Amino acid sequence: MAEQSSVFDMIGPVMIGPSSSHTAGVVRIGRVARKILGKAPETADITFYNSFARTYEGHGSDRAIIAGLMDFKTDDDRIKTALDLAKEAGFQYKFKSVGNASVMHPNTVKVVATSGDRTIEVVGESRGGGVIKIGSVNGFGVGFNANLSTMIIMAADKKGAIAFIATVLANEDCNIASMAVNRKGKNDRACHVIEMDSKPSQVTIDFLKHLSWINEVIFIPDIDF
Amino acid sequence: MCFLFEDFKGWKQYCEQHQMPLHQAVIEYEVSEKEASEEKIWDGLANAYTVMKEAVQTGLTQDMTSRSGMINNGAKKVFNYPKPLLSKEFQVLISRALAAKEVNSCMGRVVAAPTAGASGIIPGVMVTFQELHGVDDRKIHEGLLVSAGIALIMEKRASIAGAVGGCQAETGSAAAMAAGAMVYCLGGSVDQVFNAVAITIQCMLGLICDPVAGLVEVPCVVRNASAAAIANSSAQIALADVSGVIPVDECVEAMGEVGQSMETRYKETALGGLAATTTGQAISKRVLIQDIEMLPDEDQE
Ligand code: SF4
Question: Which residues does the UniProt record annotate as the domain Serine dehydratase-like alpha subunit (chain B) (predicted)?
């Protein structure tokens, strides 16, 4: 999924400091988690791994992840005071540091967030310059960077599913940039991750959602919008 | 179109073939790769430059104390010091680069150009340049496009991340971008612009990334000032057509090679260089989180 960089990756992003990987990237990961959760979180357990583990306070990664979960963008002045704002909103969070997680990227953060009866788990890597990669969602390996429109479809693992989804999107003139499927056991559940150059219409998303073999459709727009 | 930002040679060829200035090729790249409209690109540049100017201003006027305390209003002290060493302009240049970078260290708004660690260099250089040479904002925006083109190639052929290529990749790339932009804005030829980049890389080559306590403060802030100075010295040399001898593409290649062979402790891990000094270690103990659960070496999945 190697994307060509944009001019605004070089002159940008406009962000709140200090670090594009430890602050801006972390805001973006938090924001993806927020989109996946679909609403304002009530609680969040956050684990900072490896290089993040020691420096998350000094780099303001703690404020950054909470800011992202509150749907702030990377250039939002309120990041600096995000922890206070969360408290005011009754949003409870906990931080934990884990070192030596050798299978993980040096800058990894895991978010377990809940709202009402919905709980999600998102693991994200901050890869430098604010670029992120979402490694897993609810235990499924995914691997998207959220700078395109991304759709995650949790569905029964059945024949023809990929072709079906691709056709539905093609009918809408959605250009698919990449599509990956991750399965948990044969004929069990599959997680489709589709990156598109444009946004599918709400009707299409709703159509996919109502199909009996599809459990869930999560749509994440380009993360800076 | 993808071929364009593979190397500097390709960029030059493309511009010659299509008889267009350097910045126009960058616009075409962005339009074709990102399906962006030209108007949106110019708006984005205008916004970025505004944020840069604001950062310079903020750093020189508001309280800039970082959470660790290592950064403590240095830019204002430099700006107000009564005795300029070379000239008032030089003093202002240095203090502006420091100012924008201090804003970054203190959780203020900046443009990562190309990264947050190097976010004081282009603002310090371009704001000062614009003031001295009276070029309009549009020209500066063109210069920023050129600097983006420079960074796109450096990202591809070397790196722009301290964790991958050391500090040469961050402050080095930013200095090269700034030098190229200035020469371009003064009407320099393609060769002069690229030569400014080549010379800057030569000056920044080998710089390690060794932030004390892993925070983007020391030596990052002062390196933004020195990189701003180097951008100016390189541009001055290139404008006079004094060749850097080694062509720009080869300089970038050397930068990539140096970055690759740099040991991990010099790549943002805070294990070497200044971070490993006695004082660096003591600061690190004081400001960093000590309560960490360590996984066993052979961790499961
Ligand atoms: S020392 Fe490292 S963190 Fe600091 S500016 Fe250089 S590359 Fe960035």
Answer: 18-275
